[in-house]
Amino acid sequence: MHSGYFSYHRIQRILARRCPFVYIRFNAYLSSFSESNFNPGSHPVRDSNVSFVERDHFDEGNVDFGKFREMGVEDSRELSLFGDNNGGYQRNRSLNFDGFDEIEEEEGDNCPADDDFVVLNSYNVQCEQTEDVWRIELEEDELRHPLVREICRLIQCRSAWNAKLERDMRHLLRSLKPRQVCAVLLSQDDERVALQFFYWADRQWRYRHNPIVYYAMLEILSKTKLCQGAKRVLRLMARRGIECRPEAFGYLMVSYSRAGNLRNAMKVLTLMQKAGVELNLAVCNTAIHVLVRANKLEKALRFFERMQIVGIIPNVVAYNCLIKGYCNVNQVENALQLISDMPSKNCSPDKVSYYTIMSFFCKEKQVKEVRDLMEKMVKESNLFPDMVTYDTLIHILSKHGHADEALEFLQEAEARGFQIDKVGHSAIVHAYCKQGKIDEAKGIVSEMLSKGCNPDVVTYTAVVDGFCRVGKLEQAKKMLQHMYKHGCKPNTVSYTALLTGLCRNGSSLQAREMLTGSEEEFWTPNAITYSAVMNGLRKEGKLSEACDVVKEMISKGFFPNPVEINLIIESLCREGKMNEAKRFLEECLNKGCAVNVVNFTTLIHGYCQKDDLEAALSLLDDMYLSNKHPDAVTYTAIIDALGKNGRIEEATDLTMKMLKKGLLPTPVTYRTVIHRYCQMGKVEDLLKLLEKMLLGQKCKTAYNQVIEKLCSFGNLQEADKLLSRVLKTASRNDANTCNMLLESYLSKGMPLSAYKVACRMFNRNLIPNLKLSDKLSKRLMLEGKSAEADNLMLRFVERGHLSPQCE
């Protein structure tokens, strides 16, 4: 019998005999592990992990838990990052990580204050200044190891996840070496799935992550916006007693930066200080990179200066970050000056320094400046252009649509004896095709064949796409045949480019036929292929065929996104095919597609447009059953339809229901409610409802809209009663509202009432419209109200809007 199995059952028997209450808790604990399945297919984690928090709480409350964790763990000290006797685990947990709670999402200005740089003052000048940024470099055989591939296969079986699959994965997990666990994490296309696997593995019995796994996870998260996940991984390292190197904090900084939260990114420096981790050059360079990435060049320069004041000598990486920052704000002269000043600072520029400025010149199509900089690179820095130099220039110029200039550098590189590979040629071909210069692109392909640099599928696909862009579909088809003749089999991207071109040129049915015959042509469509054909059929009004494509797409394991689903529903609703739209939505929902609130709202709006309110209300109830909670837009659509059909009481009830659910009315909601109530003449009910709507969210123009809408419906008496509510603020919007009421009184032949409105405006320091006032003055004179007319003009003279001569 396996030793681990024997130990487990022996512990159970001892606990059951001697400590029954502990035995119950022990069993409950183990059952919670078996029940907490790792299910990445349910919903991708949104940077949250409930099980993680529960595990941490259990760890704090159970001192002996660490002993159980160490059972059966293989010695991994040869893979340790730090070479200690504990395999990288530090038994002392003296690090202070209370500062984690301070790093939260903040509102307001996201710009860091200079106070965040004070942490540099704590830098220890005596410590060695290094920038040994640690990274995980995995070999190809580690990524292709059978155990790694099997774990990845099990993770991909998300839709059919069950207890057996989890048991198999748990068994395989204990056989993985730490670097193989890193390979599993790096093999995931979705970083959220990798994070969830990381959490799941950490919860398993008789397994613990090696420190290398934590750093691998942090490195993966640093390339995403999942900053909260990175923060939790770092917190978990502290609670597990793992040494947190400065690089771990640097990964968290970069993740915050990618999420657009610069303030919290810089606060990580303070967190390092509180945790007792010494600053090093790598973290300082990361801080400069974060500031430059957020377009805070001035802050980056001040941080750079503060580094030198406290004794941190910047290296070429720091200078390159600043050069990049200068180029981002189009201050290339300052970037060139920085390169010139670097030798005097005992830091010679490298090729990256020059490449950064060359990239800026390439974007601006300043080829002469690029050549001058290449000469400067040779003369002043003794750096000679090589293959990488020309490849960089060719790709950047091609990327920004400067194919002719890229071709010049390609020819120059070949003249100097460098051999540009097919990737460089393909970049130029693609640039020519995007510009519509198909003949030039074909010429490069022919030249490649003559030089023995056989074009690959990427090159040919670029030409196919180019022909499709200019509408030469027959030549695009011939190019696919040409690929076969030269031993280059078209792939899915090649056919997708052709099908997209067919759909773009109104031949969606032909694209549909090619999609159906894909198996005969030995190519496999992907989600992009199906989406292109579906959208082409939809735009041509062939909605039934488009729905069939979506069904086929789902049967192949590809799911349309909510935007694509919404386009189909909207098109069906526009043609009045409400039943088909509802069936389509139900099929997508049943098949597990990512149906969202917008899709339901579009269908509800379609029913409202057809005045089928019962179906709309029924669908609103179905949303709750499907766990898709309606938003304010959904409610507004039905409220408007109910008001349109005179069912104002039901509209009121629905509005109150929306408010009780905590949904804030949108500006459209206010306009809709005001329009329908004013149309029905229910002003008192409207005012009561508005008071409740305004409790949750203020709308400064709500009463302005009511007065203007009442004026449009001719209910001037009610509008006049509300004028005092508008004149409390006396803004420009209020003046426009008063002018509208004044004009309405004039159109109704009531100049004296209009005059009273003008007087009330003057009393609130609002100036009536001069043309309307002139018209009002004449009407007052015609009706024998000369005193009022003179008083009106006198008010304008007093405020400097009329001269006494005009009076």
TrEMBL record:
Entry annotated with the keyword Repeat: yes
Superkingdom, natural source: Eukaryota
PPR repeats: 245-279, 280-314, 315-349, 350-385, 386-420, 421-455, 456-490, 491-525, 526-560, 561-595, 596-630, 631-665, 666-696, 734-768
Any one GO molecular-function label of the UniProt entry: mRNA binding
Pfam families linked to this entry: PPR (PF01535), PPR_1 (PF12854), PPR_2 (PF13041), TPR_24 (PF23276)
Domain Pentatricopeptide repeat-containing protein-mitochondrial: 210-306
The keyword Repeat belongs to this UniProt entry's keyword annotation: yes
Family in the record: Belongs to the PPR family. P subfamily.
Name of this chain's protein: Pentatricopeptide repeat-containing protein-mitochondrial domain-containing protein
Gene source species: Gossypium tomentosum (Hawaiian cotton)
